[in-house]
Amino acid sequence: MKFGQIVAATLLIGVTMPSWAIIGLGAHWAPNAGFALKSSKAVLDVNNSSTGITMAQGDVDGAQGFGVKVWLDFLPFIDIEATGNFQLGMYDVTLSHASFANPIEVKSELDFPIFNEAKPFFAQALGDVSILYPFLKLPPVVSLVKLYAGGGLTYGAATPVLNVATSKKIIAKNNVTLTGTTQEEITSNLAKDLAKGLAKDGLESGIGFHLMAGAKLKPPIIPIAIYANAKYYLLSFLPDAVDSEGITFELGGALAF
Question: What would the pLDDT profile of 93-125 be if each residue is shown by its tens digit?
Fold first, then answer.
């Protein structure tokens, strides 16, 4: 057999073989469209005494994130995948008083270099185990593109939101008192105490559910795949300030063998 015939036969076998691999390992961008953290504004009392200090907590519209994924598709009728996502949204928190002009910002005191001296943030880490049903493969023989839908369990953890309700808990838990000689200094010290208390607070965690749909593209022979998913979470452990859980999109690439 001539060399050209061997090459042609190899290519023919490659394109007529199902392209899907046994395992895929991927990484993706995971923005959360529609995620909403509602704003709040109220007078902050300390030890049941009115201080005249007003706390304003800003909102978050959408969140950015990233994630990793591993999937198995050697089982008949269904695929199984595990995903880990981390998402983050920054917001403003200020304390103000009628006795001085410029509001005092509350800074983050968490021990992460990229967040040091930054705004407070809402963050969530989510781990998913999904069972997917591939309802369409295109084209039918080669199956370059697979469309699927499904859902599964989610375990996650989220940071508290620094609003008036959380601040009152921090004040009571840490026996925060007002210190300083001027109202501006008193307010500034309170802002630092709240930031320290927030850094000590633990994460809210729990189990939830998710629904998802998406597509994968996997050429024959080449051990590379790309994927795009839309995922909706049903999580009970999120803070009350989260007004909408939004829809997470997973857009990434993988090595598939």
Answer: 999 999 999 999 998 876 554 554 578 889 999
Q: What is the model's pTM?
A: 0.85
Closest CA to 40 of 168, 173, 221: 168
Token digits for 36?
């909403």
Contact 121, 112 (CB under 8 A): no
Q: How far apart are CA 215 and CA 78, in angstroms?
A: 14
Residue 209 half-sphere exposure, CB side, CA atoms within 13 Å?
5
* Tens of pLDDT, residues 143-173: 799 999 999 999 999 999 999 999 999 999 9
- What does the radius of gyration of the chain's CA atoms come to, in whole angstroms? 25
Task: State both tokens at 124.
Answer: 């969530």
Q: Hunting for tokens 């307010």 — which residue is that? A: 187
Q: Which residues pair with 225 in a beta bridge?
A: 254
Q: Say how far apart CA 21 and CA 225 lie, in whole Å.
A: 10
The amino acid present at 240, given as its one-letter code, is D
